Amino acid sequence: MKTETVTFRIDAALKDEFAEIAEEEEKPVGELLRELIRERVKLRQRLAFEAEARRQCGLLNAAAQDPSSDEAAVMRELEADLHDFLVEWK
pTM of the full predicted structure? Predict the structure, then answer.
């Protein structure tokens, strides 16, 4: 895997505190920074996935409101199955 070097400025006090964290965790500062970057990228990906899932759920919900849609038919089938299950369960 090709690697890149990133250079940035940071407040000295913040750098010292971060170095303390790295020392406590017995990790090099660079490795701790890489972990933080990976976590941030994963968070961004998860948030994008959740936003897309909400968007698609909204579209399906809107479609299910139309009684003639396939989505509404599926919902009716699910409700009937749930009703049958509840009757059997009692």
Answer: 0.70
